[in-house]
User: Fold this.
Amino acid sequence: MNPLLNKFDTPFGVPPFKLIKAEHFMPAYLEAMALQNEEIDAIVQNSDAPDFDNTIAALDYSGNLLKQVSSIFSNIRSANTNDELQVIAKDLVPLTSAHRSNISMNPELFGRIKSVYEQEESLNLTAEQSKLLEKTYKNFIKGGANLNEEEKNKLREIDEKLSMLSLQYGENLLTETNSFQLIIEDEADLGGLPEAVISGAAEAAEEAELGGLWLFTLHKPSWIPFLQYSEKRHLREELYKAMYNRANNGNEFDNKEIISNMIKLRTERSHLMGYESHAAYMLEDRMAKKPENVYNLLMQLWEPALTIATKEAEMMQEMIDKEGGNFKLASWDWWYYTEKIRKEKYDLDEEEIRPYFNLEAVTNGVFSVVENLYGVTFDKREDIPAYHEDATAYEVLESDGTHLGVLYLDYHPRASKRAGAWSTSYRKQCYIDGEKVHTIGSIVCNFSKPTGDKPALLSFDEALTLFHEMGHAIHGLFSECNYPGISGTSVPRDFVELPSQIMENWGAHPDVLKTYAKHYETGEAIPDELIEKLSASSKFNMGFISTEYLAASFLDMDFHVTTEVKNIDVDAFEKTAMKKIGLIEEIIPRYRPTYFNHIFASGYSAGYYSYIWAEVLDKDAFEAFKETELFNQELASSFRENILSKGGTIDPMEMYLNFRGQKPDVNALLEGRGLNL
Assistant:
């Protein structure tokens, strides 16, 4: 029996991970697609006149089995993949792409949807139903429902090719990330590295059967501290160049041709749909609405950020010259001299901070913030199946003890997991036949593992990453929507980061730091002196942080405002884009094209700006708490009611105004980043 096709006999209906094998996925996909086809046929053949329930709601509820199977497969493939799953993914692309196209281009189905859409005013729909109707109609238009048969066939072909290219892009990046090793044989080459970093490298070497040596990789917990502390400039350069040349090495895993083809296909698709560019096609349904609004925001921030970054570079060059270094500051030097200046200017060493950010304590701190704001609790459950031994399951409970959902936490890097940190779900909240379906969510990170007798210790930035991802998770957990198509995080891409980014404000607040940042050996809370240093240095290096992020956002937009369907020399395109905005050579974009997973293998194409757009919202929204009290439960209840619970049932700005009572002010962001020159 295929466990994916049976009712899950598990606590809260989580997937029975231990029973699921790779060979179960293809048969489950085929049966689930066949079942949805039957459901679509039933909608189309319904003899009753089209209405909201028999057409729009029926369509939204269709494919539940397929949603279940695909969420399990895609999440496992991201967090715990293997060669067999990668092969299945390639085989699935043409099947799932054709299935989606067959639905979105079904003329009889669209005819019923259009009929309901045209009579909306007379249907007396709720606000949520109206939003689902509008979204469904627009999705079908953007999915090619109005195209002629020749155009539909062309769109099917484009979508299938894009799906395959995106899959290959991600596979290439994972392979290139896992394949590089910086092996240190001479202990003298470890100069400057903290003991914990050295121990971690020794353990990594041991795991790779390189006992007695030290191993550094392209996973962030490995390469970042090496760049921050290694005194060996040539080794910093080797590691950094390996990082920023991933999938750009002219080998079988090179992503440049894939990128060129994806940009061509995206541009061609936008033209087919009547849009000038892919960016115009994507932004129409987001808060930004059009490319010029994105560029306007980015430029407001770019000039002050670049001014400050240039001053930071000058400061580092002065230190290099003062120390007798006969070289010009390069991008692989930035992290190292940032730490030296931070130490000199603020008497602050990140390794001095790290012992206070024990992963377990940070986790409890995140739980505590959510509990103090919203009253919910997290109960660790050993009886809930998990997809990997590193993943821990929690039942999330309302203040009165009722079940709210399940949340997995999966913290450490492994070869089977893609890089980065993300929040996802195995099941979205909705109501079916009047009964609430609860969220099954997951937070996946790549934090350093425990080493020797030390627990996993985080950097301050990593601690804030956990707060960030928890914001996404509670957005899904707190959802209170009827229909799965607009529940939880089903909101415009440039609004979805508000719930995540506002959580970082609590994680960094001095009053909150004292409650969770405790020394892993003594249990002593982080001293006021260190908090003051953190606060004093909070805007330090913000020129670099802002500039590398904004540079990547410009690069994303420049790729996707392309109006010509033509081959692109990816390296030359990047160089031209960065020259146009005046990026200094000591800084590279946070993501160069060949490892810009957000825009080529995820959902952020023409959308990477979303983080800074949402930061305008989150800084302004957090002001409401700063103006009253940090854990103002009345305000938190309003934020939950007006934003976190609403999914995509209301226009995002309307949601924000319902909570804040005023439009967001960009000055809060400028002040928060120290960019208000």
